[in-house]
Amino acid sequence: MFSERLITIFDLMASKESHEGERGILCSVAAEITAVSATGITLVTSMQLPLAFCASDEVAKGLIDLEITVGEGPCRDTLDRDDPVCEEDLALLRNSQWMLYAPSALARGVRAVFAFPLRIGAIQLGALCLYSTTPGPLSESQFTDALLMASVIGRGIVALQAGAAPAALSQELQREAAFDFSVHQAAGMLAVQASIDISSALVALRMHAFSVSQSLSVVSGRVIDRQLRFDPDINEWREGGL
Length: 242
Known about the structure:
single chain; alpha+beta; Beta-Lactamase; five-stranded antiparallel sheet; two-stranded antiparallel sheet; about 50% helix; about 20% strand
C-alpha cells in the first residue's frame, strides 16, 4: 500500500510537471492526494521565520499570509511542537488559542486545519498545512497520506536545493515556488529606517499590518514602493516618501 501511494504521488507530480509553466506542483499534488479543500507549504528561514513556499489556491495563499502576519496558527505550532497539529473545528477552539488566526480563517470558509512538519533527520524545513471547509478529523488514510506527502515534499525541497550556494535559493527551487520576498525586503528597509534588527523589524511590520487590517505582503509592498515609511523621530508610521 505504501509503495502504491508513492507511485500515485510521483505519477501526479509527473502529470502536473508536463504542463509548462505550472508552479506550486507540490501543493496541488498534496491537496489531491489527501483529498482536502486546499493546502499550503511554508519554509523556515535561517532566522526561524516562516516563508510562504506555495499554495494550492487563493484560500490557502491567504491563510499562509494570515499566519505569517499574525504570528500564530497551525504551521507555526507544528514547527514548535515538531509534531502534527490537528484542529478539527476552528469554531470550537478555546478563546486563548489562535485568537487572531481562527476568526479570520473561519471568515474565509475554513473549518478545520491540519499541519505536518517537513523535516529531513533533525533538520526542520517547514510545514505542510491542510485546510478543510467542513469540520471533522482526517480519516486514517488521509492522515497517513499527509505524512507520506510531507516526507516527499521534504525530500523534494532538498533535491531542488541541491548544489545551490550557502544561504542562496537554487533556480530549481525558485521555479517551483511562488516566493514572496517582499516581506524580507521591507523588513530590511524598516530595520535601516528605525535602526533596529531584522527580527524586530518583522515584528513591527506584522503589528502594523494587523492594526490597519491589511496583509503583511500588502504592507510590505507599500514599504518597498515608498508609499509607507517609519519615522524614527516621531516613532510613528507615515504615508508617503521622504
